[in-house]
Amino acid sequence: MTYVTGTALTLALLASLFLAALHLGFRAPRMRERGTPADLGLAYEAVRIPTASGKQLFAWWLPVSAADTSIIILHGWGGNAELMLPMAQPFQQAGINVLLIDARNHGNSDADTFSSLPRFAEDLDHAIDWLRQKHPVQSRRLALLGHSVGAGAALLSASRTRDITAVISISAFAHPEWMMKRYLQRFHLPDLVVGLVLNYVQWIIGHRFSDIAPLSTVCRIDCPILLVHGRADTTVPVEDARAIAAGCPESNITLLEIDEAEHDSVDKIEQHGFALVSFLQQQGFAGQTMRSCQHPRQ
């Protein structure tokens, strides 16, 4: 074996190991549900929702008698529907149907090759279709709520889905590139390597970060958006939410900043459940005037 050949093989091996480590590092941890909505005294039905690639999503349908408004709730990276139950309770108590879903590779949903913001949004798109087909009367008005990656997915879905009445985004990052650079800082990688990683991830997920970034998608949404963010969030700093709100000044965006709330502080956000419900009521939920995203900007 020549020196050149040996060097090439060594570099190829190192590259393979690096890519394997990269995939492992970005793999979403699976946390399965241990409880049910019944633990909070909520009536529910466990359902399976078909999604892309022949996979199925696990979900909880929390119906309210005679309600014609619904909200779909999507967790963040490594989360599940159970973790979002405290967020669902105030909506159901206000007379709004709730559908909590597990994205692929999360909770009790089917496994797939990888997870990404676009795939979260794809699962959300299929949940919207399922809800409108199975419960058309209950989904005459429909809102989306997502946390973290799920929030980015909710914004992406609303930017291309008709007839969404409102979107609630909790702890969304402004741009995937910003988020990944914050994550990669801990490894002290050269800028060249960071750039290669960013390009590789975009190639794997099949989307440019600039096309799926909340900074971009909010400007393609016509319905009202509520951005909720904790001021103590160290995973996604509150400056991301401020950048999203400032990046599209003509859009109908409201920013709610919560003191002492961190990235996963559902308990802190739950204390502001009235504000979230009030936001939906202003958009026509619970009988008030509705304003829908019937014609998203192209």
TrEMBL record:
Entry-linked Pfam families: Hydrolase_4
Domain of life: Bacteria
Every Serine aminopeptidase S33 domain range: 67-184
Annotated InterPro entries: AB_hydrolase_fold (IPR029058), FrsA_esterase (IPR050261), Hydrolase_4 (IPR022742)
One term of GO molecular function: carboxylic ester hydrolase activity
Entry keyword set: Hydrolase
Identification of the protein by name: Alpha/beta hydrolase
Species of provenance: Sedimenticola selenatireducens
